[in-house]
Structure formats: C-alpha cells, structure tokens
Amino acid sequence: MKNLLKISLIATILFTSVNTYANNDDLSLKVNNAERKTISLSINQTQDMKVTFYGLNDEVLYEKKGHELSGSSKTYDLTDFPDGTYIMKLETGLKSVEYQINIENNKASLSEAPNKEAFKPVLTKKDGVVTLNLDYTNKAPVEITIFDEFNNQLYTNIYNDSSKLVRKFNVGKALSNKLTFVLTSKGEAFNSTIDVR
C-alpha cells in the first residue's frame, strides 16, 4: 500500500483557477475537488523548497526537494489516497509550514491556517562576522544565547519584535574554536554550531 501511494502521487504542472485555502508570502495552496482530489501549489518567489506528505504515524508517503522558480505551479494528485488525515509539510530556506489535509468521501480539504510554522534562522560567517537572519511571521519574542565549546554562556538577549531579525556578531577575536547559537521561541528551539577558526 505504501509503494502504491508513493507511485500514485504524481506532481504535474497545472495552471488552473480553483479556490485558494492557504496563502503566505512565499507560496499559496489551492485544493480542487471538481474532478479529482488535487492540491495545487503556486510559488510566489524563487527559492529552494522541500515538499513532504506524511500519513499515519509520521510515515513519509512522498518527498521531493527542488529549486522552484517564481510564478511556477505544482499540482499533487491525491486520487489514490484513502479517506483519512494527512500532513503536507513545506520547507523553504527560512521557514517550515505544515498543513493538514483531510480526505473524506472522495473529497480533499486543506486546513485554513498552517498547523505549525517553525522559524528557521540562517547563520552565515564571513570575515570574522556571524550574521543571523530570521524571517519569523509569528512575531513572538526570540531569545538568542551563545555558548562557547565548553558550554559557557557568552551572550543572551531577548528580541521582542522578531518578524525580521538580522543581527551581526563579531567573532573574529573570540577565544573559542567553536560557538553554538541557540534560539528559542514559543517552546521551539534551534541551535547551530559555527567554527570560529
């Protein structure tokens, strides 16, 4: 059954007008029940993206990574999916969003708002400076803590307006070989270790 579901989930490019159920700045999702169960994804900005469909017990039914161009569209055919609840997870460079898909009586419906939107900070290092870039639409406070390789806390701060957070840290004169950046917000945590030397 698992292989049948994987094979039957075919992504095709369609340009069709259907009702929009979910939108954000990067992409929009549409569901079409007129002739078959399909979900269309419109990409509003060029980006790397990963699409994953999960079944019961977090079983991966379909997964695809790609570089998607602005203005393109993908359609996922769910015709062979039996009645039940599924999760569609979309991951881009800066965020991860999950939508719940319910299939009942040969009709698919998509949750109106994302079930879960996680923040995905981007850390880059250049010329002794680490730049933190966070695009977080939840706008919840974000705490940033930096530890050295011996787990000593070197820095901590809470940023209340975190919707567009860009911070630069001069690590060129740090005494440590590695620094770990820990970001927490609304019970979620992200950490990344950067080689300083």
Automatic annotation (TrEMBL):
* Keywords for this protein: Signal
**Residues spanning the signal sequence:** 1-22
The protein's name is Secreted protein (Por secretion system target)
What does the organism's lineage look like at the top? Answer: Bacteria, Pseudomonadati, Bacteroidota, Sphingobacteriia, Sphingobacteriales
